[in-house]
Amino acid sequence: MSEISIETNSNTNDDLPLHKDKKLYTCEICSKQFSGKSELTRHLKTHTGEKKFFCKFCKEGFAGRHDLQTHEQAHKAAGEKPFACEMCEKRFVSLKTLKNHCVLHTGERSFKCDVCSKLFARNGDLKSHMITHTGELRFCCGICNEKFPRRAAYKTHILTHTGERPFECDVCGKGFARKDSLSRHVVLHTGEKPFSWQLFCIVLN
Asked: DNA repair: present as a keyword of the record (predicted)?
């Protein structure tokens, strides 16, 4: 590793700022120059073949973290989901989201509410539950200022202002703002009663 010092000629272009004694770091293998030592160090790994960073999508190795991040962004842009659940084959972008999903199959509930001792499979579910104790209304409608404890309730409320009905009946084409409203409507066509977990629990007990 060697470094050289150059001086800018102020007479060449009066519009350019002066940078006297600017140090450049030169690669002794390919003579490529860099403005900083850290950049040169990262570059040298391309010659040694050292690859410490591996893509979580395709396992390809990279010498620098920045190169890895750039590579993984290409995967994400393509919408790739390399992590598959062995139980239901649903796919996920990251290992973390896959693990969060898997607890739904195992039934493991390790997150406990300090107020009522109710158990939850995921930390996010516990946080949502805590709102029932605190009464916190975090989501405020910008149109009528009505507040809601959960994002889902807030989004459903917004539809009352926009008139949007994203849930459409396949039989008659009628639209609904809420999915559960559509489910109740479908019964009119099929005559089947929707499955009730509450009734199921009563029968078991």
From this structure: no
Phi, psi of 198 (to 5 degrees): -65, -45
The rounded distance, in Å, linking the Cα atoms of 166 and 74 is: 31
Q: Are strands 83-84 and 91-92 parallel, antiparallel or unpaired?
A: antiparallel
Q: For 43-84, how does the pLDDT look when each residue is reduced to its tens digit (9 = 90+)?
A: 777 777 677 788 877 777 887 788 888 877 777 766 667 778
Measured distance CA(63)–CA(204) in Å, rounded: 58
Place of tokens 């350019």: 16
Residues 6+ apart with CB under 8 A from 200: none
Phi–psi pair at 200, nearest 5 degrees: -60, -40
Asked if residue 168 has pLDDT above 50, the reply is yes
Integer Cα distance of 20 and 6 in angstroms: 7
189's CB contacts (< 8 A; 6+ apart) are 169, 171, 172
What rounded mean pLDDT belongs to the chain? 75
Q: Which helix (H) or strand (E) holds 22?
A: strand 22-26
Sheet holding 2-6, edge to edge: 2-6, 22-26, 33-34
Tokens 């977990």, residue located: 197
Question: Average pLDDT in the 87-116 region?
Answer: 81
The 3-class secondary structure across 145-191, one letter per residue, is CCEECCHHHHHHHHHHHHCCCCEECCCCCCEECCHHHHHHHHHHHHC
